[in-house]
Every structure is written in C-alpha cells, then in structure tokens.
Amino acid sequence: MIVHQETLQCSTTGHGDVQDLTQAVAAVVARSGVARGLVHVHVVGSTAAVGTIELEPGLQRDLPELMDRLVPPHETYYHELTWHDGNAHAHLQATLLGASATVPVRDGQPVLGTWQQLVLVECDVRPRQRELVVTVQGVPSQS
User: Fold this and answer.
1) Within 10 Å of residue 23's Cβ, how many Cβ atoms?
2) Domains in the chain: boundaries
3) How far apart (Å, rounded) are the C-alpha atoms in residues 3 and 14?
4) Measured between alpha carbons, how far is 78 from 88 in angstroms, rounded to an integer?
5) Pairing of strands 100-106, 109-110
6) How many alpha carbons lie under 13 Å from residue 63 in its C-beta half-sphere?
7) Which CATH number fits domain 2-138: 2.40.10.120, 3.30.70.20, 2.60.120.460, 2.40.260.10?
C-alpha cells in the first residue's frame, strides 16, 4: 500500500472564481506510483470548496450565481454582525459545497467522466492564495 501526499498552491481572483485542478491532481497521482486506489483533494480554509463539474464557460458562471441565490452575499448573517468582514456568505457557500473531493484511481489516473473536472471554487470576497492537500492512497502497478 502506498500513501503519497503533496501540497498544491493556487491563486484565485476572488468570489466566484472556479479553477480546473484536474491536470495538477493527475500529475500528483502519476508521481505517486499508485495504479489503483483513491485520490483525495482538500482545500485548506473555510471559504473555498473543492468538487467536480463540467468546467465550461456557462457552468463557470452558473455555479457561483446559483450559490449567490442560495446564500446571498448581502444578507445579514450573525458572522457578519460579529466580524464585519463581508464574507459570511463565503463561509456558508463553502460549507454547502464541501472542502474536499475523493475520486477513484484506476490505471494510474483519476477516474473522471469525459466532461467532469476537479475544481476549486473560491467563495471569499477577495483574491486568495489557496493551499490544496492532495493525498493518493492505493496499490502500485505490478511489475
């Protein structure tokens, strides 16, 4: 059994930025030597999320707009009353979407659908430098 972990860095442009992580995660899987197993991607922080989606221009707009309808940025939230930092909605949106995603690994590659990408979703109100922890666990290819 192999357990391999790497940290990736990602700069975001602020609220609603959706970035493709697929190739970077696939590269970590390749470096791990795991042929069959799981890859887990986790964003460190409480105002960003990781998930899967078809990353095309329409959905890059639709997802943040949907989250803003579900958890509007300019509502009154108790977090905002306490901290006055303008990002209560970002915490709530990130919680709904989730901080991590786990994908099977087969033949040394993440198993994703043709139109499915691993993505980072920035929910915070300002650009951020995000740290992503990628953990690959599984068995190596048989030599």
Assistant:
1) 9
2) 2-138
3) 33
4) 8
5) antiparallel
6) 25
7) 2.60.120.460
Terminal C-alpha separation, the chain: 15
Q: What are the pLDDT digits (tens) for 60-94?
A: 999 999 999 999 998 889 998 898 888 999 999 99
Q: pTM value?
A: 0.95
Whole-number Cα distances in Å, 79 to 14, 55, 87, 89: 19, 31, 8, 9
- With contact defined as beta carbons under 8 Å apart, do 25 and 10 qualify? no
Q: Residue 68 is inside which H or E element, if any?
A: helix 57-70
- What pLDDT, on a 0 to 100 scale, did the predictor assign at position 135? 98
